[in-house]
């Protein structure tokens, strides 16, 4: 089985995340969307709400699972018997940041990181932008899947 982990905080799930996951599922038998728990980070949405957003968005895709984890992503990959980490790239800055993490993960384990470029119409979307739009009462509905819209 070709299983990939798609890690992130998903605060909230965006159309950019959704794009990468739906394109990634054509490459893998299963994708585990792994919501990382970080006690030092302030989230806009609770862990339960983020899980709910994701589970609802992918309820019709049985090969996509949602789990939470703490610690190193490579340790979670080993626990879940996943040989791949799936990541999305929006721009050159993402590439530089993700490249360093991918090299570190490869040094720590045999896990391969697979990068997909976000579709051009979604490459500007980030969770931090969505949170800012929500905080300022803007219309964020064109940035997130239906499951996140109020």
Give me some keywords for this one.
single chain; 150 residues; alpha/beta; Rossmann fold; 5-stranded parallel β-sheet; 5 helices; 5 strands; 36% helix
Summarize the structure.
Belongs to the bacterial CoaD family. It contains 5 helices and 5 strands.
Question: What does this 3D model show about the protein?
Answer:
By secondary structure, the chain is α/β, with parallel strands linked by helices. The chain has a single domain (3-148), classed as Rossmann fold. 36% of the residues lie in helices and 21% in strands. It has helices at residues 15-24, 47-57, 73-79, 92-108, 127-135, and strands at residues 3-8, 30-36, 64-69, 84-89, 112-117. The protein has a 5-stranded parallel sheet, with helices on both faces. Strand 1 (3-8), helix 1 (15-24) and strand 2 form a beta-alpha-beta unit. The longest helix has 17 residues, at 92-108.
- The counted number of beta strands is 5
**Terminal CA distance:** 37 Å
Tally the structural domains: 1
Helix fraction bin: 25-40%
CATH fold name: Rossmann fold
What is the helix tally? 5
> What is the CATH level 1 assignment?
Alpha Beta
Q: Please state the structural category.
A: alpha/beta
Structural shape: globular
EC number: 2.7.7.3
Organism: Maribacter orientalis
Subcellular location: Cytoplasm
GO biological process, one term: coenzyme A biosynthetic process
Topology:
Layout: E1 3-8, H1 15-24, E2 30-36, H2 47-57, E3 64-69, H3 73-79, E4 84-89, H4 92-108, E5 112-117, H5 127-135
Parallel strand pairs: 1-2, 1-4, 2-3, 4-5
């Amino acid at each position: 089985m070709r299983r990939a982990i798609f890690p992130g905080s998903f605060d909230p799930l965006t159309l950019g995340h959704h794009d990468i996951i739906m394109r990634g599922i054509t490459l893998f038998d299963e994708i585990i969307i792994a919501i990382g728990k970080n006690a030092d980070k302030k989230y806009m949405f609770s862990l339960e709400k983020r899980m709910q957003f994701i589970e609802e968005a992918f309820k019709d895709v049985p090969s996509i699972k949602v789990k939470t984890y703490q610690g190193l992503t490579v340790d979670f990959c080993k626990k879940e018997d996943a040989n791949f980490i799936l990541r999305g790239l929006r721009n050159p800055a993402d590439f530089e940041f993700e490249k360093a993490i991918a090299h570190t993960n490869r040094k720590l384990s045999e896990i391969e990181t697979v990068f997909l470029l976000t579709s051009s119409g979604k490459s500007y979307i980030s969770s931090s932008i969505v949170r800012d739009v929500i905080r300022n009462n803007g219309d964020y509905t064109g940035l997130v899947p239906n499951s996140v819209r109020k």
